Amino acid sequence: MELRRLGRSDMWISSISLGCWVMGKEWWGDADDSESIAAIHAAIDQGINFIDTAPAYGAGHSEEVLGKALEGKRDKVYIATKVGWGDLDPQKLPGALEASLKRLRTDYVDLYQIHWPHETIPISDSMAVIKKLQDQGKVRYIGVSNFNVPQMKEALSVARIESLQPPYNLFWRHIEKEILPFCIENEIGVIAYSPLAQGLLTGKFTKDTKFPENDIRSHALLFQGDIFLTALEAVEEMKPIAQKYGKTVGQVALNWLLCQPGVTSAIVGARRPSQVEENVGGQGWKLDDEDLKTLDQLSKRVMSKLDDDPRMWRW
């Protein structure tokens, strides 16, 4: 497993990380806890040492599953979790962390991230509290998620942030204009979520695929109308590239992401061990320049159907 340094921290994290949103039993259909735990154990066995979760994933259920899975294995992984939008009030924030620690069955987290910026609570106020928690040893490093450049600047005015967690994949490249260059300049690691575009880049969907209202993809822009059809066509054209390397389309998409400047790790969700194994196959090899150019052209065809709004979901 390839390891990359996260920001300026002393954490060298796996280029493929495990995301635990799907384990929260909310917005992705039901999940079996025993299978989720097996997937976590498989990830560790495959060399994944960075696991991302959040209290928002199933009202804490994802954290609980992760905590149970890591009994006796805490020293093998870096745990990243988040503080939710509703707990950014300086009075609530310490309690939110304590609740996460209890669910995770640990006394510290390696990376504590602001999940989404609040509309009215100043980022600097929340960051000041997180910095105190860091000084107390309950948080090793601080990160942010879904932030733009001005928001990252405000966070940095209070404390060092080692990471940004944005949506980033072959079909969703909004961060390349301003956010990614800022992260590179300031040595902020980019840990990309939705690297497979909620499964769109795996090649398992067709134009007839429908999602229930309680599936997050029913609200995702890439799964709507002409955008979805254009993306499906692009995925079909990726298949010869995948065959050339003896890989799957999803593995090609992950490798493309890991080839992009500034990217530290791709956070990929998994429901079962077999999915973990396939995700790990996205690293350990490299697309050649010609294929990277072809993928860039396919990507731009899909991106031409999108507006400049960086919000992946439209509610």
Topology of this structure?
Blueprint lengths: L2 E3 L6 E3 L1 E4 L13 H13 L4 E3 L8 H9 L8 E6 L9 H12 L4 E6 L8 H13 L3 E7 L3 H8 L6 E3 L13 H7 L3 E4 L32 H21 L3 H10 L4 E7 L3 H8 L8 H15 L12
Give short descriptive properties of this protein:
10 helices; 15% strand; single chain; 315 residues; eight-stranded parallel β-barrel; 37% helix; TIM Barrel; alpha/beta
Q: What can you see in these coordinates?
A:
This protein is an alpha/beta fold and 315 residues long. The chain has a single domain (3-199, 248-286), classed as NADP-dependent oxidoreductase domain (TIM Barrel), CATH 3.20.20.100. It has 10 helices and 10 strands. The chain has helices at residues 33-45, 61-69, 93-104, 123-135, 149-156, 179-185, 225-245, 249-258, 273-280, 289-303; strands at 3-5, 12-14, 16-19, 50-52, 78-83, 109-114, 139-145, 163-165, 189-192, 263-269. The strands form 2 sheets. The chain has an 8-stranded parallel barrel with strand order 3-4-5-6-7-8-9-10, surrounded by 5 helices. The model has no long low-confidence stretch (mean pLDDT 94).
